[in-house]
Amino acid sequence: MPRKTVYSIGFMLASVLLLGGCIKMDMQQTINKDGSSHVKIVNDLTAFGEFSQLDDASLGAAGDTAAGDELSQITENLDSACDDFYADTTMENAVCVRDEYIITMEGDLQLTEDIFDVKKSLPYITYSYDATNAFALMNETGGEQSKQLDETAISEAKASADLIGMELNYTLTMPAPITNSSVGVVTANQVVIDVFDLSGEEAIYIESQDLNWAWIIGGSVILLFLLALIILVLVLVIKRKMRIKKMTKTASQMNQPMTELKSDNSTSTTTQEDKLPAEKNNN
User: Fold this and answer.
1) Neighbours of 68 (CB within 10 A)
2) How far apart are CA 177 and CA 199, in angstroms?
3) How far, in whole angstroms, is CA 272 from its chain's centroid?
4) What is the DSSP string of the chain?
5) What residues are paired with 192 via a beta bridge?
6) What is d(CA 192, CA 187) in angstroms, rounded to the nearest whole number?
7) Residue 19: exposed, middle, or buried by beta-carbon count in 10 A (0-12, 13-18, 19+)?
8) Whole-number percent of the chain with pLDDT over 90
9) Distance between CA 92 and CA 105 in Å, rounded?
């Protein structure tokens, strides 16, 4: 890891341990559904404002000449922070602004599948992100080596963080409402994490879910199509049965007059035959 890339966390750890002042870092990351993200890191090093007023004589009188040398080195790094950021960052559209002792660095990053995963099912789309990637973001590199170095440095400062007045806050905004997070304070699709809570962890996944409207709409269309097909088949079957019933009834109605005619003819024949013997007898 290049030495210059440690300005984000290195400045803070060194200055806090040296000065015992209040140093803050606020890191914000917004993740989009396609895995693109925007990162903004604000380093508040206002503790330098008071400590940098001390001259070498004052530091020497306090028996802290080594601290004076360290302060000079940190001040030099502070002066070149933005130049180092532009030289080393992997961010797209990188911007760095320094306002006295507050340095703001931001840019865009495309997340890789090993830290950001998207699973589509019915009815949800689940987004999972490894929050321990915050350590890599601090140094603007994706290397595992820099991540481990950061974790080691933070672990060393974690025990005394409250005493030395150090704050490392990570605000993560997910693409959808958060459904699972073992760290931080969750509000809708946002979680605020104390970076110290991430140290020593192999991975901490933040999960969020959104309705899978594409699958829901597609599934609904298929169901409607199947329902319409079933209704059509039922209608055709019913109509066929009604047609057969009507044809049967018509045929029955057509056969009935013929039966009656045959019956009348039979009755007439019988009557005539009965009359003939009677006439013969009369004769």
Assistant:
1) 19
2) 25
3) 101
4) --GGGGHHHHHHHHHHHHH---EEEEEEEEE-TTSEEEEEEEEE-THHHHHTT--HHHHHHTT-HHHHHHHHHHHHHHHTHHHHHHHH---EEEEEEEETTEEEEEEEEEPPTTTEEEEE-SSEEEEEEEGGGHHHHHTT---HHHHHHHHHHHHHHHTTHHHHTEEEEEEEE-SS-EEE-SSSEEETTEEEEEGGGGTT-S--EEEEEEE-HHHHHHHHHHHHHHHHHHHHHHHHHHHHHHHHHHHHHHHHHHHHHHHHHHHHHHHHHHHHHHHHHHHHHH-
5) 171, 185
6) 8
7) buried
8) 29
9) 12
Structure confidence by residue, pLDDT tens digits, 220-268: 777 788 888 888 888 888 888 888 877 777 777 676 665 555 555 555 5
Distances from the Cα of 60 to the Cα of 36, 50, 214, angstroms: 50, 17, 69
Please tell me the total number of residues recorded for the chain in this structure.
283
Place of tokens 């991430």: 198
